[in-house]
Amino acid sequence: MTIVARWWWVVLALVVVTVAGRRMLENLIFFPDREMPPTPPGVLDRMIETADGVRIHAWLAAPPDPTATLVWSHGNGGNIGNRAEILLALAARNLAVLAYDYRGYGRSEGTPSEAGAYLDSEAAYDHVRASGIAPDRIVCFGESLGGTVSIRLATERPCAGVAVVATFGSMREVARIHYGLMGSAIGSRFDVANRIARLAVPLFVAHGDQDEIVPYELGERLFAAAPEPKRFLRVRGAMHNDVLGYPELLDAVATFAADAVAQAR
Hints:
Helix content is 38%, strand content 20%. The protein has helices spanning 3-29, 84-92, 114-130, 145-156, 171-179, 216-225, 247-264, and strands at residues 31-32, 44-49, 55-61, 68-73, 77-78, 95-100, 138-143, 161-165, 203-208, 230-235. The longest helix is centred in the N-terminal third of the chain and has 27 residues, at 3-29.
């Protein structure tokens, strides 16, 4: 084998290892569920095409005269079908909600990735805008990993405010807590620690003080890094996966969204 041929195989091996490693990390981040329940009564199905040609699925709950419209970026597990009860509870608080599934989740096409999640969020936002909703009536809403997606979205698209629940400044922070130094392998994925300082709209942060996945302190740290105006809600007794089931949290989200829209107009 010639020297050139040997180097070709070395380069090819490095590419394979890099791609495999990247896919392995993605598999540790995303836990999609393809099984979807029936669409809830009164909720509309939407198929939205992203900038790179992937079709993602969304549910739209729209009361007659909503105080605000939420673009909901969910966490890294399940799909919007697991969150139907919360969707209806938010709509009952007079909020319009577009809850979309990232690529690879539910009925959405494609394979999940960080870059893909950002494109999906932008497509969901653009779909709301195309329906005639003004930016000053839109609130970016996210839970857990989706909170980082929402914060990024608010620095890429105009909106009235951002509301995040059980969210962190960077995935590396969470990974280090659970995996020690090995958590550093996650790199700079879903890192909004610098972006949040550039927010130009009101921010609402809520966190369960018994969160066993994203510790409460990370929510406090995220909040501290953000500029005013901002609000923080400590959800007493709430863990990571049940925090959205607390009525006082949903009430606070609805109040914040209405206030943010009123201030933006």
